[in-house]
Amino acid sequence: MPTKYLLLSIVALAGPFFQTPGLLAQDAQGDQEVTQGPRIFFDCQGSQCGSTNDTYYRTEIPWVTWVRDQQDANLYLIMTSQTTGGGGREFQLDAVGREQYADYEDQSFFRSLATDTQRENVDGISHSLGLAFARFAQYAGFRDLVHLEGNQIGNVARQTQIVTADQANDPWNLWVFNVSGNGNFNGEATSTTRRFSGSLSASRVTPTWKQSYRSSVNYNFQETNFSSGAQFKDVRTDWNFNTTVVYTVAEFWSAGFTGRAGRSVRQNQRFSARISPALEYSLLPYDEATRRAVTAFYEIGPVYYDYFELTEYELIEETRFEQSLTLEVSARQPWGDVSLTVAGSHYLHDFDRNNLRVSGNVSFRITRGLDVNFGGSYSLVADQLYLPFEELTDEELLSGVRSAATDQRHTIILGLSYRFGSIFNNVVNNRFPGGGGNSRGFPGGGGFRLPPGFSF
Questions:
Q1: Fewer Cβ atoms within 10 A, N terminus or C terminus of the chain?
Q2: How far apart are CA 331 and CA 340, in angstroms?
């Protein structure tokens, strides 16, 4: 007798929703809202986030109450993601209970494929969100929201999350390739701009090795005619090749090398090449990287430059050794996000030829609805070996087609936001989106599709 597997599917009871639209019911006066499901605060940043996707998730999971501030929530859910070896993404869902449910914690994952459409991505995420919310609803005692249905499926092999190259008949041996290209043309009576670019990449990721190779080429044409009769023209072709090979040495250690080669007209480099052995140490386990990370990355190696014109040291080519150390700290918690990077590098032949950069971002929730955002970077620059011997013209400085000498760079971003009003975030109205009515609030358009045996 063949083994039977039980497929569990979550189905929202439709009865309560036939009486009132959506999840929120109103009293006779229409001024009091009554919630019928757990209150959810959804913290999503990065891939598959944003107002359009957020609207989609709320539309497809109407049996919970979406709130605008975590202080009003029963469940706080953080979604982060990282790239997988096949070019897709792994989404990590971390659910943390609040108030009387503070002891509740849950974690789940969803993996998209590189070939998935936007619609397939958001459908899969909605599916995973629904399962996470249903598990919490069962734990917290919310009743008459979901129930389970069992479907008997015979002769179906149990799927595993990871399939190795030995288990799968993979003619590509886990290699993934990507080819892309684009071009644009802009013109006016006094100016013309043409840009073309293309790229080719290959990667292979296993639990032990990670390899990535990427090359790109960019063509730029810019012509401007001034009222005085003068003309400015800039024509340049740049290209670059980058590679990273990493080996998993131990739980917290990784070793490998990075390589770069390319051509940059703006930086006076007809050809440049570098290969650097590298070592990385992670203070925390790598599987926690999407939520928190503390790493130190060191690399050292030779770099070769062939210049278009003489540098300020009257060199047309040179080979130097350079080393660098990068320290990174990042965390994403219910109170907000924080990241800090400190990077330093210098050429071994002259320690005065160095670069020190400090950058960071902080998003901190002060109190209900009040968030402060601060970010910035500051660099001390003393490693511009490529600066030309001849001074740049005014046109080159104005257009930015050539790099100018500098001893520092800085950027500062400061923001403050305050939200107030209704705590509920369930209602969706897609009429005249964006004020122009030219785009819909549904990624991929159309109705919602779930796997067989699963429905809300």
A1: N
A2: 9
Do residues 242 and 214 lie in contact, with contact meaning Cβ atoms separated by under 8 Å? yes
Q: What is the dihedral of CA 26, 28, 29, 31, to 10 degrees?
A: -10
For the domain made up of 4-153+426-435, give the CATH fold. Rossmann fold (3.40.50)
Digit-coded pLDDT (tens) for 323-362: 999 999 988 776 777 889 999 999 999 999 999 999 998 8
**pLDDT value at residue 395:** 67
What is the per-residue pLDDT across 163-215, written as a single tens digit (0 to 9) for each?
554 545 667 787 888 899 999 999 888 889 999 999 999 988 888 888 999 99
The answer to whether domain 176-418 has CATH 2.30.30 is: no
Q: Which residue has the tokens 């203070």?
A: 283
Let me know: does 269 contact 306? Beta carbons within 8 Å.
yes
Side chain identity at residue 137, one-letter code: A
The separation between CA 170 and the C-alpha centre of its own chain, rounded to angstroms, equals 28
The CA-based diameter of the chain, rounded to the nearest angstrom, is: 90
CA–CA gap between residue 300 and residue 316 (Å, rounded)? 23
> Residue 1: which residues within 8 A CB-CB, separation 6 or more?
none
CA dist., res. 346 & res. 14, Å (int): 66
Every domain of the chain with CATH number 3.40.50 lies at 4-153+426-435
- Provide CATH 2.40.160 ranges for the chain: 176-418
